[in-house]
Target: 2-C-methyl-D-erythritol 2,4-cyclodiphosphate synthase
Amino acid sequence: MRIGQGFDVHAFGPGTHVVLGGVSIPHTQGLLAHSDGDVVIHALCDAILGALALGDIGRHFPPSDERWRNVSSRHFLLHCAGLMIENGYQLANADLTVICETPRIGPHAEAMRTNLCADLGCGRQEVNIKATTTEKLGFTGRGEGIAAQAVVLLQRRGKSAAVIPENPELRTLMAELDLDPLK
Ligand SMILES: Nc1ccn([C@@H]2O[C@H](COP(=O)(O)O)[C@@H](O)[C@H]2O)c(=O)n1
Ligand SMILES: C[C@@]1(CO)OP(=O)(O)OP(=O)(O)OC[C@H]1O
Model:
């Protein structure tokens, strides 16, 4: 078993929506970032990479690289899911916390969960999404940005229990990276 944790913050800036867990949520502001600024997925990627002892998201997707400008963070998550499988692990569970005053996360949590489970190739029971305000304290309390935390537990995947991801994007990415899901 391997445990990993991730944390990310993005500041609010001009915009009409934020992208969290791959869900576009209408909002009075957007999030400033090189990519789509999906703090939830960034924290989750860092947790997975941490569990695998493979560094962090910036090492795999440098902010200096123009290829990642405005890209969907689901691309990063698919990559991390592929690395997890390549290294012989599957997700035992992931627990995420989104920290902001607004927008309200509750109404979007199930759609976010659907996206994350699809990209990770796991069942709904393996992923939980929570939200909290900071009672108007600190930078999230002042409405300056959104923070997210993630904790994951990875378990060794036996050959007999091997899971070939249902998500066609993940299968394609794994094929491109020459990752064998049964290895
Ligand atoms: N951005 C948010 C923040 C909170 N929630 C939900 O409200 C509950 C109460 O939050 P407190 O910060 O007052 O404890 C929390 O448990 C979430 O269910 C939310 O949906 N979006
Ligand atoms: C996601 C990456 C991609 O270039 O950039 P940002 O979208 O700015 O996000 P951040 O969490 O600040 O940094 C990690 C980078 O890998």
Summary: The chain is about 30% helix and 30% strand. Residues 8, 33-35, 37, 42, 57-58, 61, 63, 68 surround CDI (ligand 2) (CB under 6 Å). The beta strands are 2-13, 17-20, 23-26, 30-31, 89-99, 127-132, 145-156.
